[in-house]
Amino acid sequence: MKELNIGLCGLGTVGSGVFDVLSSNSRIMFEKSLCEINIVHIATRSDNHKCDVGDVQYSKDVFQVAKDPNVDLVVELIGGTDVAFELVMLAISNKKHVVTANKALIAESGSIILEAARNANVNVAFEASVGGGIPVLKSIREGLVANKINWLAGIINGTTNFILSEMSIKKTAFGVVLTEAQSKGYAEADPTFDVEGVDAAQKLAILASLSFGIPLSVSEFFVEGVTNILLEDITFAKELGFTVKHIGICRETNGSLEARVHPALIPYSSLLAHVNGVSNAVMVNSDAADTTLFYGPGAGSKATASSVIADIIDVAKAPESPCFSSLGYPIDRLKRKDIINIEDIDCGFYIRFIARDKAGVLSELTTTMAEASVSIESIIQRDHASKIDHVNVVIQTNKIKYSALDPVLKKIKKLENVLDDIVLIRVENLDQ
Amino acid sequence: MKELNIGLCGLGTVGSGVFDVLSSNSRIMFEKSLCEINIVHIATRSDNHKCDVGDVQYSKDVFQVAKDPNVDLVVELIGGTDVAFELVMLAISNKKHVVTANKALIAESGSIILEAARNANVNVAFEASVGGGIPVLKSIREGLVANKINWLAGIINGTTNFILSEMSIKKTAFGVVLTEAQSKGYAEADPTFDVEGVDAAQKLAILASLSFGIPLSVSEFFVEGVTNILLEDITFAKELGFTVKHIGICRETNGSLEARVHPALIPYSSLLAHVNGVSNAVMVNSDAADTTLFYGPGAGSKATASSVIADIIDVAKAPESPCFSSLGYPIDRLKRKDIINIEDIDCGFYIRFIARDKAGVLSELTTTMAEASVSIESIIQRDHASKIDHVNVVIQTNKIKYSALDPVLKKIKKLENVLDDIVLIRVENLDQ
Q1: Which B-chain residues 284-313 have CB contacts (< 8 A) with chain A?
Q2: B139 occurs within a structural domain
Q3: What is the pTM of this model?
Q4: Which residues have CB under 8 Å from B336's CB, separation 6+?
Q5: Domain of B113?
Q6: Are residue B347 and residue B312 in the same domain, yes or no?
Q7: What is the ipTM of this complex?
């Protein structure tokens, strides 16, 4: 039997989930792992929590936990990046292991934290930082350890996936669904962080570091949110055999990396197209295991707690194996790779604009595209819902660099019969 | 850096994959794990292999590997259950770790093998025995360690999934697709083992032991293959919003277990319905993480090798942690649970039969069912493709025990206007 004393910092959504699951499932966890996990110290900065901490030592100063000689492992669930960073660094300097669900902290300061952990010979684990209850980091790090990863594509933000799924299923506009998501607790009062892709980019930084052995950083990632996605584009995409998803993609090409977060058309033939609601899924393509996918709840109190506790038990089982390799690669073996500029990445594009319904418009368009060697996969022309004598023109291109497409789009905009702005969404077939 | 010397027994499909991936990816594996895996002994019982073993010691007697003092870990990839069992037991008695992809061996003799491993304080790992390249055993064992598993449902046989997918997509009959599968190498010359569900039952036994802490055994499982699935049933299922899949299901109810392998109608709203071709996927519902799914290639040389090597590296990283808990639970903590008789399990049913196209037939049927309190979810009546004046009647029931449905089916069979046999397929909504 192995025993581990933990200190729990934070009793918010995730912290209370950890407290509850550790209490309710302690017997079954022990049966499986022969590890006994004792909560010996709890700290919260506010009194506003619902857990009955009983006679466990309780502090209002989270740093007390990191200083407590009885604590072997500090669970950081206070969120934010300032106090959380200080807390984690103090815990490490006191030779305590750390488990956290804090993606922002790891994406921003993971390199410093993991370097400190290596020097102190302690573990820092953060399964819950990506994909909530899905053991996706473990699967990539350990399950696919024999593989060179070619690419990964993930639905890693539950809020945007809920919004896009609901728009598609209920045929409702973005704003309406966002309000619904807020009332259900799936979106924050200020949803910027989620809908603009910041949260997904932080998670992608962790997945990219783990999968491609690069240092943690989002600074060069291309990030685009979902606020401009219109219901009509979801409908046209469906007609073309696609669904619109907000995804994070990382792909290695000749030693350089694509790293981007944006809405994309995903074909129905891909499992990712069928991941709906607040669920998350990460698809990984690697040289031996080919295409694997890991699916589950992207957030939630108990689901996230499941991953936090899995990390705790991993440490309890082998505390002597410092996993500063939580990143897949030991921290000192991470190597920077060039991030390919979004303009230079080959992909298909969905293009929509409104044109006057006149003879010759399509011929003018296709000629313009042919002259620039833009190859068209599909083209749809439909009467505009409200503008009489106008049509929606939808074009799906084959793979092309944005830098090559852009001049064509500029030419199209100048065509006499083309109105308004051009809608542009990338198409990802995920087939290689 | 950690070093592990392995002996490789078997260079067939999986063995050659292990040899190739270990050779081609040795640098990347070392970068990730800081473990060096050396193949120091290879044995094959036939000369018929394509690997250039170079100057690695080579034997035609696999037992030489289990006796070799230089070997720390024996990789059993010879298949079968007789010699393989002796080989594994000899390796264990010589204090060597064992990694195997042999589901039949583990399902049949896993308890004896794991008990011996516990006594010898060595590891026995078998990730590749279920779901080929998918790290599904690790995910359940470690990623979901904090959870009580409620149920799992898996597409765990690539051959039957390929056959059912192709029947559905290409609208082709079973026999035609089976021949195609054989020519592509997706089905054996004698496909009995796969199409009758034996292979899936063995994998389900491993998943069940891992998830519910029961001893390994298939003896009480209900097993039904796919040989009776007709194209028209796939078509009617589609009309009802379902796809027909061959699945293994295990569910705990009041301390007893359902354990069954059979074709089932899966709703399109479930991710499992979209797992096509030779791919596998296991869906797990647990109390904290809720519903997770693990998807990937169910077989194949390199995909299976990926899992074999992941096991090897796990042992290399922590050889001192004997994982006779490869089963999720330590072998001495496994507890038998009652397996519920298939007749007593509640589920929905898809029922189809041919009736004469006469007024009053439907009313007669629905009255018969109502009298027996069988609740109908949907009913379809369609002209029979070849029999004039006959119709196909398709009924989807709500959940009911087979023992309660059976007398109704007998009554229906006796109705004057009902002909031929009744087709019966279970419906699994996987919604709780």
Answers
A1: 286-297, 300, 302-303, 305-307, 309-310, 313
A2: no
A3: 0.97
A4: B214, B215
A5: 2-133+301-333
A6: no
A7: 0.96
